[in-house]
Amino acid sequence: MKRLCTICARGGSKGLPSKNIRLLEGKPLIAHTIEQAKRLRHLFVGIAVSSDSEEILAVAREYGVDFAIRRPDSMATDTASKLPPIQHAVEAVEAALSIHIGAIVDLDPTSPLRGDDDVVGAVALFDKTGCQSVLTGAPARKSPYFNQMEWDEGGFVRLVKPLANPPFRRQDGPQVFDMNAAVYVWRRDRFMVDPKVFYEDSQLFVMPEERSWDIDNLIDFEFVQLMMAKEKQQ
């Protein structure tokens, strides 16, 4: 099956400005994901970076991606989904190579602690099950059945998902997972006509918490720096 690796990186970021090119361990954040994709090149017919930022695209070219794709401005607003830029990238690569992609593997540049084995494992699960999509996640630290709260219509606090027989320990409730945005795998034909994360047969590839940090703000970034520095010392 022909697989395309997509890496989507918008130029604007409210939580951490210019985070995708912020230096992490001496190189731009997005470079860590590009280098990982290149280590796993045997999985892909191409590696494509999609961005609205010429600065990000220049970094992508410097680090050797196959396709640096300028997305339309309409796909780069603060409220825009990442799914249309992936569709746009698939169309661009298919036109350039005159091929039909079978699967899309999206690697988020804000998840640099993701391991190579996590990508390989998610792809293997996708191939084994024949599902429409695989997403990665980690065991949740908080449970909607035990200690996650929300306001109800009257302004009073309640559990997000109360049970008829509530557990006395979080571990006794239904197992729940946090989406970690590290890896998404989609079947191309379904995704291109019906782009979404969850389908009726979507599968979960479970990653450990220590590799599941998604950088959204400075605290996240500093935590990842700490984890990377610790790993280098081992």
Report on the structure:
This protein is α/β, with parallel strands linked by helices. It has two domains: 3-138 and 176-233, Spore Coat Polysaccharide Biosynthesis Protein SpsA, Chain A (Alpha-Beta Complex); 141-175, no CATH class. Helices cover 30% and strands 23% of the residues. The chain is built from six helices and eleven strands. The protein has helices at 29-39, 54-62, 83-97, 116-129, 188-193, 218-233, and strands spanning 3-8, 23-24, 27-28, 46-51, 67-70, 103-107, 133-139, 149-151, 157-159, 177-187, 203-206. The strands form three sheets. Strands 5-4-1-6-10-7-11 form a seven-stranded mixed beta sheet, with helices on both faces. The protein has a two-stranded antiparallel ribbon with strand order 2-3. The protein is globular. The chain starts with a strand and ends with a helix.
Summarize the structure.
The protein is of the alpha/beta class and 234 residues long. The chain has six helices and eleven strands.
